[in-house]
Amino acid sequence: METSRREEKRNLESIPAGSLGLIPLAGCKSMGEEVDYYLTKWRAERESEHKNSLAFAGYQRPTYIVKGEVPRFGTGEAKGILKESVRGMDLYIMVDVCNYSMTYSLFGEENHMSPDDHYQNLKRIIAAVGGKARRITVIMPFLYESRQHKRSARESLDCAIALQELVRMGVDNIITFDAHDPRVQNAIPLSGFETVQASYQFIKGLLRNERDLTIDADHMMVISPDEGGMKRAVYIANVLGLDMGMFYKRRDYTRIVDGRNPIIAHEFLGSNVEGKDMIVVDDMISSGESVIEVARGLKERKAGRVFVFATFGLFTSGLSEFDRAYEEGVISRVLTTNLIYQTPDLLERPWYASCSMSKYVAYIIDTLNHDSSISDLLNPSDRIQNAVSRYRISQKTGEWKD
Question: CATH for 2-197+358-371?
Fold first, then answer.
């Protein structure tokens, strides 16, 4: 069993930093429950001679979720409440700042929660902890205000301010996924900050859904849709042994539309793509306009199938453009993670595949609670190679082993 093998491989015999506590905020309940399932399952199965020692008190529990809530007054004001003691706990607070499906009453009107609302709720829960926890780690998959990470004019530096604010409130570590620009951690150089990639889950999801791939440089290529995403594309290309190409965006800097300079064209840099399957790798799909234009550009150059990897599928302009692109054969499949809210409509789309990160997050929490290294979790090259090897064997035998 894969879980058992991984657990035996990981050395988690060290004393926990504190009794484990998991606080998934309202917009992150679903994923929090999945993470809690894995944690309770592993800790019930794990054999340890120290289970009954004082240092391991409360190590095995039916749930690690600490009950908390953020009720609101009629004016929209709110307060954070914890329903149980967290004294001495090693707390992991999970927040999805992109979950716009959450609502609250504002003077009798239904108001959808914005990233600002979710971030404020996070601070309320930290304030409710009141400094009684032994350690606080915030797991914020989509880093709040991460696209406002640098100053190009007289602008606010929202992400840096938010990170510093969390540290001042007593947060010890911040774990995010595929930060728009990891250099934003320079705002808190003396505090823990990890930006995690979902490369392994994407590749595994692609292999699970597409059974006729030929993974070599003659049949497949990795594409970065812009210069900012080169690093993640280079990593996947190197691990899979593929060539890569890049588009760069020509923008109109004379005007601003929806808070940004509009893109005039996508120019391609790279070798011949004709007949090859394309893996387009990006950190997020916002409106989707950019990635669809990149896919059309590849198709115009006679590329084969186009698969899109994006850690965060925001789809701020709806799904109709992707439906059209799929029907026209421009895009074959889009893979994003469950790190942020996914609409029921999205999950039903034939072109969409969801990559669950719940087990991965549980591994990170379990390891950090023991003060062990997560280096091998942050670099999944060995696991990717193993998955590709199993895939190639399954193509010969006809039996797929996940």
Answer: 3.40.50.2020
Domain coordinates in residue numbering, the chain: 2-197+358-371, 199-338+382-397
Q: Give the β-pairing of 135-139 and 173-177.
A: parallel
Q: Exposed, middle or buried by CB within 10 Å (0-12, 13-18, 19+), for 209? A: middle
355 with 375: CB under 8 angstroms?
A: no
Q: Show the tokens assigned to 348.
A: 């039903």
Please compute, for residue 374, the number of CA atoms within 13 A of its CA located in the half-sphere on the CB side. 21
Cα–Cα distance between 210 and 306 in angstroms, integer?
12
Token couple for 93: 């607070």
Q: Interior CA angle at 215 toward 219 and 389, to 5°?
A: 165
**pLDDT at position 48:** 65
Distance between CA atoms of 296 and 285, rounded to whole angstroms?
16
Tokens encoding 344 = 């029921």
**Nearest-10 Cα torsion for 258, 261, 262, 265:** -160
Q: Which tens digits make up the pLDDT trace of 13-25?
A: 778 888 999 999 9
| Predicted confidence (pLDDT) per residue in 137-190, tens digit | 999 999 999 988 888 888 899 999 999 999 999 999 999 999 988 899 999 999
Examine the pLDDT at 83 and tell me if it is beyond 80: yes
CATH fold of the domain at 199-338+382-397: Rossmann fold (3.40.50)
Q: What is the DSSP letter of 301?
A: T
